[in-house]
């Protein structure tokens, strides 16, 4: 299977449950005929922990003293900036409850005839055994979770069960059950301890045939032919009117609801695809079997498809959290938050190229919904106009609250530029020009630097101070320091981008001047791009983050074509970088940068580390660490981006074909890629060469580059040696041959 996966037995761990989602609701499906559980999730479910009303502390009056100390050589001065503030995590993401259709003892091993499956193209999860069949999907059309069970003579207890792992002991739980002519209505109200907030789940149970009665904490059905459950979750301070919530649930049958859901999901998922020629013999293996053969091309194929499916399914009201849209445990690692200094951008890295505007729109909702909080951060911490993004957010607040000596994330100023970059790429892919909202945010980012960049180094360059490279420190200094390379790159990019897209702004000329006065990147004694462009600071190479290579990926400010010497230094930095604790995001970040630097062996090694490190559950959702340790979406969602970058890269004026294809993937096809100069692209490659079909949506002049060992041999028109002249609506076919 390319567009799906399957298993020969039910899930026994929530981590292995198959996933469905519409970007608001999420479902985790076990597929057990005897205890048919579906864990219900919703993006809005974060548990109050006292952080929800915290505002950034007023520290700006201390900033000048801190800058003086750091510039004079006090390498520990930043430890006192914000000292004494408690480390407060954002509100933790948690599951709602599980819907349970319980009969007798379950199946816990493969048995003849059992199969559970998820269809990526429709978002439907199915399971079957003998006469029993189950189907679950999360509707994009009606915003409900729909669960359908058929079995002649079905007799079962149905309950909404909030007792999931890690649930607080003092949850206030209330239930309501009302019998109806076609089944029953169930409701579960859950109140958070010590808070007026809570959430409500409502379910309509429609029963075909048999008898229905109230039993225990739910209902009992006897002798039915089928059962359909339709579930929705709402969160808030008020106790909603249950009658209104039940009445708002759709009443059509399962087939009708599924038919209404399929078109929007299928359209989005089907825009892009990836196949490998040598994958066919193993395509029909179960996911768990494929995971035991990490060298199989069929595994990369399936994980690419699963990654796009899970990314799409977890993006809507918000972009994906650290766990996507799913968790079966209230004790989610790192609060199940949005970690913005690496993880979120890595997860959504394929959105523009892989034709998932739904993902970018969800990210835009997060960013634009928090800009006023980011303004508060800039003013309170730095005494500046503009915006400073936090390193963690629960989706509800964008205020900085992570104060810690070892991870002084409140000193990180590059976040706004980093988080706006995916929106800029989306604009380049679609219209070529940012809309008014994005342009306004770009201006806000530049205004921060206009105020913040007020200090100079001894050579008269502007100094970025304080500065922080997430989540690393120099070997001979504390975490907060001067001129982190990521901060320099972000400042330069924010200033020049705002000036370019808001040329009429009164400060546009000043922004260009400030960008020109920023320090150059530093190449250290090892020949590597330094993580800190400040004399005397020594590198810490063994670290999972690669923040200092931000100019390579995603900015493309350092590349082999325009800045070959800096690209060589960046490549040396990549060679020297360790993997520290083997975090999945570190390996795939490495792959993305290696692809930009045209190093297929490093792309291959990074992919091999993830594919062979036991990072994936049977659900094909991933873990943060090897051996499936800590449920986490980084690897699952980032892998498609690493694959695409190894095959196709684009910038507004450049196309690179096959820059870093791993040797193991000798032939295949990538379809539906969107380029940043406004063309759709299909690519087919093999040992003999490649063919690319470009379908421009606007006129463009593009510099074409190819991977080593390839040469452009034929085009549909024009001089192969000249830049490509593309005309909107006129397809262009490029043929590449092996040298």
UniProtKB/TrEMBL annotation:
Name all Glycosyl hydrolase family 95 N-terminal domain ranges.
9-232
Classification via Pfam families: Glyco_hyd_65N_2, Glyco_hydro_95_C, Glyco_hydro_95_cat
UniProt keywords (A-Z) are: Hydrolase
The record's SUPFAM superfamilies line, in alphabetical order, gives: Six-hairpin glycosidases
Occurrences of domain Glycosyl hydrolase family 95 catalytic (ranges): 254-647
Write out the GO MF terms: hydrolase activity
**Taxonomically, which superkingdom?**
Bacteria
Task: Kindly give the InterPro entries that the UniProt entry links to this protein.
Answer: 6-hairpin_glycosidase_sf (IPR008928), 6hp_glycosidase-like_sf (IPR012341), AFCA-like_C (IPR049053), Alpha-L-fucosidase (IPR016518), GH95_cat (IPR054363), GH95_N_dom (IPR027414)
* Domain Alpha fucosidase A-like C-terminal per the UniProt entry, residue ranges: 649-715
Kindly indicate whether the keyword Hydrolase belongs to this entry: yes
**What name does this protein carry?**
Glycoside hydrolase N-terminal domain-containing protein
Q: Which organism is this entry from?
A: Streptomyces atroolivaceus
